């Protein structure tokens, strides 16, 4: 358990400078993802738009309007940009123009989230259940039903061997080869209202870059577990996370919590707050350079925190 935090106050001269900002969407940035093949990144918002931006000059390269709410976007090598809609439609778009080249139907009544490793297989979708695509998306995909309970979050380890699925106060770890449950964590994401415990959905799930640390977060509590996957996850002191992003070049997690954006080292639990301002942060991701942070806001604004140039407001370290 990461407790006993010691705050280290940084002098006033080290306060962060003003972040770079741009109007990315008309309302509420729902997700941000870096392009693994080019120095670009993608955003999608509640306005049902998917947009592609250049890095680091933040120039709009392409934009596409979708007919249904967008729940997930990802660039997959050799396939294109995958766009998942809440209606169950999964589109394969051109990586340059975002024009749709083909589309498949996900066999779920509604889709809440999707995950796929860098290799492009397997692809797992969650919502009214859990399904996995065992074929190629562009050539008659075959879908396998993994679970039928309602789910909100999903992540796949970088090597594609493990999948973690979040539901109502529950996080389940699967072996992708057999789709057997390896571990199930329950009852750790609730909050207390007086004497009553209010359980919560596990909506945000992410693996570390080496696949040996798993983080699951609901509206109130964030917990983590490390291989070989103990029976209980370790709760952290970070509360009410809106979005999670794992750094690829270092074991570090970026978290958006309300108006605040902070990072947490997975080695020692050290936390650094990089910004605390209006409006509420709704999405966060590491920029293509692996050092800066992209922060989406509820107003549709996108902030760029240049970590190579900006000093943290204060830091903390767990004993």
In short:
The protein has 319 residues and is mainly β. The protein is 0% helix and 53% strand.
Write the layout of secondary structure elements.
Layout lengths: L4 E5 L10 E4 L5 E6 L5 E6 L3 E6 L5 E6 L4 E7 L3 E6 L3 E5 L6 E6 L5 E5 L7 E5 L2 E4 L9 E5 L5 E4 L5 E6 L2 E6 L4 E7 L4 E3 L2 E3 L5 E4 L5 E5 L3 E6 L7 E6 L3 E4 L5 E6 L2 E6 L5 E6 L4 E6 L6 E5 L3 E5 L8 E5 L1
Antiparallel strand pairs: 1-32, 2-31, 3-4, 4-5, 5-6, 7-8, 8-9, 9-10, 11-12, 12-13, 13-14, 15-16, 16-17, 17-18, 19-20, 21-22, 22-23, 23-24, 25-26, 26-27, 27-28, 28-32, 29-30, 30-31
Give a structural overview.
The chain has no helices and 32 strands. The model is unreliable at 1-17 and 308-319 (pLDDT under 50). It has a domain at 1-24 and 242-319. It is globular, with a radius of gyration of 19 Å. The strands form 8 sheets. A 6-stranded antiparallel β-sheet has the order 1-32-28-27-26-25, with no helix packed on it. It has a 4-stranded antiparallel β-sheet with strand order 2-31-30-29, with no helix packed on it. With 319 residues, the protein is an all-beta fold. 0% of the residues lie in helices and 53% in strands.
Strand content: over 45%
User: Helical amount among residues, as a percent range?
Assistant: under 10%
How many strands, which pairing sense, and closed or not: the largest β-sheet? Answer: 6 strands, antiparallel
Total count of strands: 32
Oligomerization: single chain
Overall 3D form: globular
Query: Reading side by side through the largest sheet, how are the strands ordered?
Result: 1-32-28-27-26-25
**Any low-confidence stretches, pLDDT <50, length ≥5?**
1-17, 308-319
Radius of gyration: 19 Å
Structural class estimated from helices and strands: mainly beta
Mean pLDDT: 84
- Give the distance, in angstroms, between the N- and C-terminal Cα atoms: 10 Å
By DSSP (H or I, 4+ residues per run), the number of helices equals: 0
């Amino acid at each position: 358990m990461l407790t006993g935090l010691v705050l280290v106050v940084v002098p006033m001269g080290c306060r962060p400078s003003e972040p770079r900002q741009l109007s990315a969407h008309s309302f509420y940035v729902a997700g941000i993802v870096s392009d693994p093949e080019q120095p670009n990144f993608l955003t999608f918002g509640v306005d049902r738009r998917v947009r592609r931006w250049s890095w680091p000059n933040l120039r709009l390269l392409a934009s596409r309007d979708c007919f249904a709410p967008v729940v997930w976007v990802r660039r997959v090598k050799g396939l294109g940009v995958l766009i998942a809609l809440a209606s169950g439609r999964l589109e394969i778009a051109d990586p340059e123009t975002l024009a749709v080249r083909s589309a498949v139907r996900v066999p779920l009544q509604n889709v809440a989230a999707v995950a796929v490793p860098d290799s492009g297989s397997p692809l797992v979708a969650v919502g009214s259940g859990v399904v996995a695509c065992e074929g190629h998306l562009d050539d008659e995909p075959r879908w396998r039903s993994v679970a039928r309970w309602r789910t909100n979050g999903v992540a796949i380890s970088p090597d594609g061997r493990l999948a973690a699925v979040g539901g109502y106060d529950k996080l389940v770890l699967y072996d992708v080869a057999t789709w057997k449950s390896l571990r199930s964590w329950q009852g750790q994401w609730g909050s207390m209202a007086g004497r009553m415990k209010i359980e919560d959905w596990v909506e945000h799930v992410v693996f570390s870059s080496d696949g040996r640390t798993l983080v699951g977060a609901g509206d109130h509590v964030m917990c983590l577990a490390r291989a070989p996957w103990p029976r209980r996850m370790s709760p952290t002191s970070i509360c009410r996370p809106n979005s999670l992003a794992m750094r690829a070049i270092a074991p570090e997690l970026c978290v958006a919590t309300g108006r605040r954006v902070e990072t947490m080292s997975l080695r020692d639990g050290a936390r650094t707050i990089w910004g605390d301002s209006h409006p509420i942060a709704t999405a966060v991701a590491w920029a293509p350079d692996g050092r800066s942070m992209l922060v989406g806001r509820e107003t549709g604004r996108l902030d760029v925190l240049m970590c190579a140039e900006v000093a943290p407001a204060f830091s903390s370290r767990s004993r």
